[in-house]
Design goal:
UDP-N-acetylmuramoyl-L-alanine:D-glutamate ligase, 6-stranded parallel sheet, 9 helices, 1-phosphofructokinase activity, 1-phosphofructokinase, nucleotide-binding
């Protein structure tokens, strides 16, 4: 079982529009609602793979109730943490030419009592979990050290923990030695405080995160592949992608694939790459099922192309 923790989930409303004309009345041609948040997406990908997952979420108000209903309909067990404030609602405007404009709300402020209840719920639900995946931004009220506290508690209970966050929350958590962290290229550059121009730059940055405490780093480099840097060395994975339809949730799908395959070594990296490649070839935020995976399209090697210039260098 993979337990996911999303401290700041959302109800994502997507409107399809011909074009975004500021100051005008824009009529949508289609709309949909989805449960949102990086940990939520990991649970959705795990469930799509036919594996059990439990999602721990602070939920409040009508948006929180809708999120719980939507997740239950996808076969995902929800461990809700009741909060006084309303769960945030995000808006995405999808234009016909593929341009996506997102408006993300800040979310509710959690009280001290709600924060402790969230931690206690994770503790109770983690019994029997193979992994805890903590993902996304922190809501108002939670200090940057909150993830560090969660990592310490998970290790005290003997449970492995994966962390997908950024900024001060990531740096604070590193000191507690999370079993794996999963930054993208932008988050990796931010963590080390310098630009990443090549795959080799990304390797060095991942090694620095290990020096700060991470036991393994799974780094997503977009179209330039993925890296796994751990105590055994460096592995590089890439996959053939015939057509990119949407990259929404692709990184979350990759993390799910990594954890499903055990979360250790090149086999897990291969699964991560396969899941990420399948996700970008699906529309919207759909998560791949086993039928969508193409393991034959994946290449994993210990010889990372360190001189390869990143397609989108990150500063």
């Amino acid at each position: 079982m993979i337990l996911t923790v999303t401290p700041n989930p959302s109800l994502d409303r997507t409107y399809e529009i011909p074009s975004l004309d500021r100051g005008e009345v824009v009529r949508a041609t289609g709309e949909r609602m989805d449960p949102g948040g990086k940990g939520v997406n990991v649970s959705r990908a795990v469930a799509a793979a036919g594996r059990r997952t439990v999602a721990v979420l602070p939920l409040g108000g009508a948006p929180g109730a809708v999120i719980e209903e939507l997740l239950a309909a996808q076969g995902i067990e929800v461990a809700p943490v009741p909060i006084a404030g309303d769960t945030r609602s995000n808006i995405a405007l999808a234009e016909s030419d593929g341009v996506l404009t997102k408006i993300n709300a800040p979310g509710p402020e959690l009280t001290g009592q709600e924060q402790e209840l969230l931690l206690d719920t994770v503790r109770r639900q983690s019994r029997g979990a193979d992994w805890i995946a903590c993902c996304g931004s922190l809501p108002r009220g939670l200090s940057p050290s909150w993830y560090a506290d969660l990592v310490a508690r998970a290790h005290a209970a003997g449970v492995r923990i994966a962390l997908d966050t950024s900024g001060p929350a990531l740096l604070e958590a590193l000191r507690e030695g999370p079993d794996v962290v999963k930054p993208n290229a932008e988050e990796l550059a931010e963590a080390v405080g310098r630009p990443l121009m090549t795959v080799g730059d990304a390797v060095k940055a991942a090694e620095e995160l290990r020096g700060l405490g991470a036991r393994a780093v799974l780094a997503s480099l977009g179209a330039d592949g993925q890296l796994l840097v751990d105590g055994a060395g460096v592995w590089y994975g890439s996959a053939r992608v015939d057509m990119v339809r949407s990259n929404v949730g692709a990184g979350d799908s990759s993390l799910a694939g990594f954890l499903i395959a055990g979360g250790i070594g090149p086999e897990a990296l291969s699964s991560a790459v396969a899941h990420g490649a399948a996700a970008v070839q699906l529309p919207g935020s759909l998560m791949p099922t086993p039928v969508h995976l193409d393991p034959a399209a994946v290449t994993v090697t210990p010889d990372a192309p360190v001189d390869r210039v990143l397609g989108e260098p990150v500063s």
